[in-house]
Amino acid sequence: MLPDYEIKRVPSIGRKIDSIILFVWMLLMMQTVLFFLFQESDQAEGMRFRLIANSNTVQDQRIKNEVKDNIAPILLEYQNDPHQTYEELEKAVGELSHSLNEKITITKGQAIFPPKMWNEGITSQTNVESIVITIGKGRGDNWWCALFPKVCYKEEVKEEKPKFWVWEWLKKKFST
C-alpha cells in the first residue's frame, strides 16, 4: 500500500516557462557553435582578376578557356610590375579580340566579388580592386584569381542542399 500523501504537480505555467527557457538556451548554444564553426576568413589582399564568358554554351566556354590560357603567363608577372602587366594584358586582349572575332573588353577598378566558401572559411561579398575581362555580353560562368597571394578558381555554381549539423553528426555517430 502506498502511504497517503498528496502529490503536488507543478503548475502548467511553470512548465511552459521552463520549456521556453530551455528552447532559448538551445538556440543560444546553436548560435554559439555556428559562430565558432563558420568564422569568416581574411579577405584575399591585393588585386583580383576576373574573366567572364559571353554565355554558358560550349563554344563560349571554350573561348573563355582559350583567353585564360593566353593571359595566364602575363598574370604571373603582375606582382613584379603591375602597370606594365596591365598594358600587356590590354595588348593581349586586343589581339585575342581580333583573332577570335569576339568583342573582348578589359576594365580596371572596383568590382563586386560574391561570397565564397573556401577551405579556410567564408569570404563575404565585397568591392575589391580588380581587373575584369569580359567576353561579349559577359553573361556566362567566370573564372577568377587573387593575384597575390596567387589563388585562382573557376567559379562553380552548385546548388547544395543545406545540412543540419546535428543530423549529420547523429548519422555519422550511429551509422554502421
Describe this structure as you would to a colleague.
This protein has helices spanning 12-37, 58-75, 82-100, 165-174, and strands spanning 48-52, 104-113, 116-118, 121-123, 126-135, 142-146, 151-154. It is an alpha+beta fold and 176 residues long. The strands form two sheets. The chain has a five-stranded mixed beta sheet with strand order 2-5-1-6-7. Strands 3-4 form a two-stranded antiparallel ribbon. A hairpin with a 4-residue loop joins strand 6 (142-146) and strand 7 (151-154). The longest helix has 26 residues, at 12-37. The protein is elongated, with a radius of gyration of 27 Å.
SSE order and pairing:
Blueprint: H1 12-37, E1 48-52, H2 58-75, H3 82-100, E2 104-113, E3 116-118, E4 121-123, E5 126-135, E6 142-146, E7 151-154, H4 165-174
Parallel strand pairs: 1-5
Antiparallel strand pairs: 1-6, 2-5, 3-4, 6-7
Helix pairs in contact: 2-3
Notable features of this structure?
single chain; 176 residues; alpha+beta; five-stranded mixed sheet; two-stranded antiparallel sheet; 4 helices; 41% helix
Mean pLDDT: 78
Beginning-to-end CA distance, first to last residue: 48 Å
User: Structural class, from helix and strand content?
Assistant: alpha+beta
Radius of gyration: 27 Å
Structural shape: elongated
Number of strands: 7
Strand order of the largest sheet: 2-5-1-6-7
Counting DSSP H or I runs of 4 or more residues, the number of helices is 4
β-strand percent reads: 15-25%
H-E string? HEHHEEEEEEH
